[in-house]
Amino acid sequence: MQLSLIVPVFREEKSIAAFVQRVTPVLEGVTPDFEIVFCLDPSPDHTEEVILAEREHDPRVKLLTFSRRVGQPMATLAGLQYSAGAAVVVMDVDLQDPPELIPEMVALWQKGYDVVLAQRRTRRGEPLARRVVARVAYWLMRHIAEVNIPENTGDFRLMSRRVVNEINRLKECHGFLRGLVSFVGFRQATLPFDRPPRAQGESNYPVVGSLRIGLNGLLCFSTAALRLSSILGFVTAGGALLVAAIYLTLKLVGYPIVWGNPTMVILIAFLGGVQLITIGILGEYIGRIYDEVRMRPKYIVDRQIGF
Fold it and tell me: Which neighbouring-strand residues pair with 157?
């Protein structure tokens, strides 16, 4: 058995050594035949040097670097493309994904599950804004997504080789791993855990980045937003007809109608807002269509060390 560990990193020079020191004994307890693939977005610090120093001590540590910054989702997909294991685990370097769960994941995989998802019971150490964004995003995906994305499951997961091969075949350029894995299907299991606080430093992933990933998940795996814009248009038109009927009735019964600037301003602002919202929704979908039809590479690898 060969096990691949995919670790996307950016500006993590303080976390690498502690991560390798903690995860290596866990992997060796499962199999001596493993690889740790660091997928490095070009970083302004010494992350690359620290990874190469770890590789000098253990050649099972490998490194992918990119020609420019591609973001965590694309770095993860690149790691999947270059991985060689019969089972592949994706996890973060900050040790909020406990490496001690990997043997349990492997045990479930050996029982016949192709995907083992680590599901967070608690999210200690995360900012309130990120927890709120996550809760809202998972609620929306649960109700409108066309695939089943279990709640509170990040990218920390184990996938069998056939799942990884199917993901590598997909051409979408958004890189929303949770949705792609759910789309591929196969037998899946969840492994609950309590997520600890970050071990070293601060997160390099802003709330805006989480929002962008969540938006990709909503738009790339559901057309509900398009239906919502249509419903919003019908509701607005119906409201306008209702107001017109009320005004006509009042006029026929001789009730004095008070016209004024506030009424006109409110109506114009409301209708303008509805139009901009629907145009914005269409723009989000069109932008993603544009990204797909260009068929540009998802990432460009600068160097591959150890492969």
Answer: 90, 117
Helix and strand numbers (H, E) in the chain are 10, 8
Evaluate whether the domain defined by 3-222 bears CATH number 3.90.550.10.
yes
- Give the pTM: 0.72
Splitting the chain (307 residues) into consecutive groups of 10 residues, what average pLDDT does each group show?
Answer: 87 86 89 90 86 88 88 87 90 86 89 86 66 68 68 83 88 75 83 72 56 63 70 74 74 70 66 76 76 76 84
Cβ neighbors of 36 (< 8 A, separation 6 or more) are: 5, 7, 20, 23, 24, 27, 60, 61, 62
The CA distance from 118 to 69, in Å, is: 27
A 10 A CB-CB count for 293 gives: 8
Distances in Å between the Cα of 75 and the Cα atoms of 9, 82, 223 are 8, 11, 27
Contact 116, 158 (CB under 8 A): yes
Domain ranges for the chain? 3-222, 224-294
Chain centroid to CA 119: 14
